[in-house]
Amino acid sequence: MSAEFTTTLDSDWYVDPEIYAREMATIFGREWLLVGHRHELARAGEYLATELAGRRIFVLAGKDGGLRAFHNVCRHRAAQLLPEGNGQCGVLRCPYHGWVYDHDGRLKKRPGFAEEESFDGAALGLFPVRVEEWRGFVFVNLDPQAGDLLSGLGDMAAATQGVPLERYRFHKRQSYELDFNWKTYTDNYLDAYHIPYLHPQLAADLDMATYRVVNGDRVSVHHASPRAKAPAGETGAYQGLFLWRWPNNSLGVYAGGFNICRILPQSVSRLRLLFDFYFDPEAGFSEAEKDRKAAMTCQVVEEDFPICSQVQRNLEVGVYRSGPLNPRLETGVAYFHDLVRRAVGNRP
């Protein structure tokens, strides 16, 4: 797909708190967002709790094996029910006043109220959140009117059809707390223009004349030919599938493993990156080999952080407003900016 715009977003989009608030409402409040993997919710009572677009939510594995998701707020006095992160919850009890809910979100007990007083447990139940699973990955959507997950994935489902994602097993997570806007990082991921300048080893592996970023439905896929064939048993950094999925995921698939990233805005000028690494047990990698492959990815990712931070500071100054995009190497950036504009609308 070709983008409608050929210039970048104005700098205001990276620094204005009002625009950021609109992004949280119209993008992160309406799209299917990855929150974890089914291996984190394998047994009844296991949960993962997180914050999305300023709203605390949790996903819980029910006794019937199904998943439920709720806003992480008690119906009594708005206390947070579960601490952020992963855990086991046999009894879903509010830590503030002891209200108890079942795993379907219905209120079961409210201590201190007259025992003979009847109440409607469903009417006082937890606020639900939509949750769906795709190939082991767990997604939630804060918009009860949104379409189904498969539609929200766009071309990601077709692009990964030949990859046995279910066979891979979790290895480790790498997290980063960073001082720039979520779009500053996304722009950088989608930009092939900078590779020779910031990633010399990666550029040495690639025939940059063949590099393209091809846009589809809600995805952008990186394509490049290698300069030379990798030695037997080895995989070059260029070999595999590398894509971005709207609004905040990247996926890198290579021989015997893959990583999936969540780009999580924390404020107009802060974000959290979570990289989860998975490997195919049939590949026979040792733990040290898995660590080495994960470290190679992290090295490339970390090479971008200083320039992203510098870009954010310059965007905040107000001298720069916008710039032209390279018609061959920044098509992914143009497509991303088009999606942002369409989702948020005109600037306030």
Provide a descriptive summary of the structure in words.
Keywords: 2Fe-2S, Iron, Iron-sulfur, Metal-binding, NAD, Oxidoreductase. Its cofactor is Fe cation. About 25% of the residues lie in helices and about 30% in strands. Helix 5 (about 180-190) runs antiparallel to helix 10 (about 330-345). The strands form 3 sheets. It has a 7-stranded antiparallel sheet with strand order 1-10-9-4-3-2-5, with no helix packed on it. Strands 11-17-16-15-14-13-12 form a 7-stranded antiparallel sheet. It folds into 2 domains: about 35-145, Rieske [2Fe-2S] iron-sulphur domain (Rieske Iron-sulfur Protein, 3-layer Sandwich), CATH 2.102.10.10; about 155-345, Naphthalene 1,2-dioxygenase Alpha Subunit, Chain A, domain 1 (Alpha-Beta Complex), CATH 3.90.380. The protein is globular. It has about 350 residues and is α+β, with helices and mostly antiparallel strands. About 35% of the residues are buried.
Explain the layout of strands and helices:
Blueprint (H helix, E strand, L loop, with lengths): L11 H4 L1 H12 L4 E5 L8 E7 L2 E7 L5 E5 L13 E4 L3 E2 L6 E2 L5 E3 L18 E7 L2 E5 L7 H5 L2 H4 L9 E10 L3 H9 L4 H4 L1 H6 E10 L3 E8 L14 E5 L3 E6 L2 E11 L2 E10 L7 H17 L1 H13 L13 H14 L4
